[in-house]
Design brief:
Layout lengths: L16 H10 L7 H12 L4 H10 L4 H10 L11 E6 L2 H4 L3 H12 L5 E2 L5 E6 L11 E3 L2 E3 L4 H14 L2
Helix pairs in contact: 1-2, 3-4, 6-7
The structure holds FE2/S2 (inorganic) cluster.
């Protein structure tokens, strides 16, 4: 039996893995793309769990120990769950021109969190992602596992506040 090591192996059926797979494809599934791929996984999911590291190792044909070593060596990578709720804001071109820089400033002022950070109470982790592939729906964000498009800045901030205060 011939194994196709280039075939990507998603860590789950989560649709966000399409973003990761696109990044791996962009690097031709080469091991040299490891750091970029780790960044995309973290940006997309908020952290690097064991299943993700295994999937990356398989898809890039690297030993898991090497992938784990890189993920734990760099301070920027997190291997623990980052927060009770997660929001990923798209910063791709179509969304960016909807005022994403001002939006991120507003989120920082009103909720005290910047991209790749978790609120002090651990309730919300905010990520900035490159593109959800739904550019026609800009402004796009993902709230936990739900992608929402055609958002206004007010709607996005209101949803974040609801996430943070709902469980209080
Ligand atoms: S730029 Fe935001 S979904 Fe593509």
């Amino acid at each position: 039996m011939i194994l196709d090591f280039r075939k990507p192996l998603p860590a789950s059926a989560d649709r966000r893995w399409k973003i990761v797979q696109a990044e791996m494809r962009r690097h031709g599934y080469a091991p040299t793309g490891l750091i970029e791929v780790l960044h995309v996984v973290q940006d997309t999911f908020g952290y690097l769990d064991r299943d993700s590291l295994q999937s990356i190792a398989h898809s890039l044909r690297l030993p898991l120990s090497k992938v784990y070593g890189v993920a734990t060596f760099y301070h920027d990578f997190k291997i623990n769950p980052p927060g009770q709720h997660q929001c990923s804001v798209c910063t791709g071109s179509a969304c960016y021109i909807q005022g994403v820089p001002e939006l991120l400033e507003r989120i920082e002022q009103e909720l005290g969190v910047r991209p790749e950070e978790t609120t002090a109470d651990g309730k919300l982790h905010l990520s900035a992602v490159r593109c959800f592939g739904a550019c026609g729906l800009a402004l796009v964000a993902m709230f936990d596992d739900k992608i929402v498009g055609k958002l206004t800045q007010d709607e996005l901030v209101a949803r974040l506040k609801e996430m943070v205060h709902h469980d209080s």
